[in-house]
Amino acid sequence: MKSSIVLVALLALAVSSGGCMTWDTRTDPGYDGPRIYSGTRLAAQQAGQQFWRLNLAWVLLFGIDIPLSFVADTLLLPVTIPEERERRATLAERMQMRDERPSPIAVAPGTHPVKAAKQLFEACVELLERYNPLLTDCFAQDARIFFDEGDPHMLTGAEYKERLRAAVAEFQQNSEFVTWRRARYAQEGDRVRIDVERSSSERGDSGEVTFWAARGEDEGWRFVELRGARWR
Fold it and tell me: What are phi and psi of 142, to 5 degrees?
């Protein structure tokens, strides 16, 4: 009984003092990322992204929040460890589907293709920022993925998804994040071309990649081609 009271007190302390990012991940109904040390991960990710954007005031703010979130996350481990087990089990079940999964966005009828492609790209960037393996839903099963080097030179979307899931897991483990800059959109027939520059917190600038987004037979928007991919 005494240990339960202590646990409740620790949890109350964790969510009521410091650790702003921990509070955000605990109260945001849209947060579906890792539960263990969620606030620390998010604060470090935000600090890194603001550093690349040269927003030093925000870097300082998030930098201050990192140790506070770490303390809060540590106190919350008795709660977040079972939550993370449940989250991973749910993800594993959802990932068993071999057929085309629903698009990560819902596009209203009549939406201009460029606007739909922009919605898709921004939603997929957010999935990557949260290390969400459902990032694979951004790619069509029959998409064509071309690599700058290495063998094979091209993979289908279905083949690429396995590699993408592994990469997201590695990013999460290393607290690595990717920053996307200067996305440009251009309609090309029934597809939309997206040219964007990328950089990594671990590897620096990684050059430019080009996506092509299109509406599928189920009316869902996905990436149907990617050029400039790299082998890890």
Answer: -100, 20
pLDDT reported for residue 93: 58
Burial of 164: CB neighbours in 10 Å, binned 0-12, 13-18, 19+: buried
- The per-residue pLDDT for 15 is 46
DSSP annotation of 31 reads: -
Check pLDDT > 50 for residue 6.
no
Task: Give the integer Cα–Cα distance in Å for 143 and 140.
Answer: 5
Cβ–Cβ < 8 Å for 6, 144:
no
Q: What secondary structure does DSSP assign to 87-143, as a single string?
A: HHHHHHHHTT--SPPPPSS---TT--HHHHHHHHHHHHHHHHHTT-GGGGGGEEEEE
Give the C-alpha separation, 67 to 87, whole Å. Answer: 25
Give the phi and the psi of residue 29 in degrees, each rounded to 5. -65, -20
Q: How far apart are CA 220 and CA 197, in angstroms?
A: 25
Which tens digits make up the pLDDT trace of 116-172? Answer: 999 999 999 999 988 888 899 999 999 999 987 766 688 999 889 888 888 888 888
**Burial class for 78, CB neighbours closer than 10 Å (0-12, 13-18, 19+):** exposed
**Domains of the chain and CATH, by start:** 2-94 (no CATH), 113-229 (3.10.450.50)
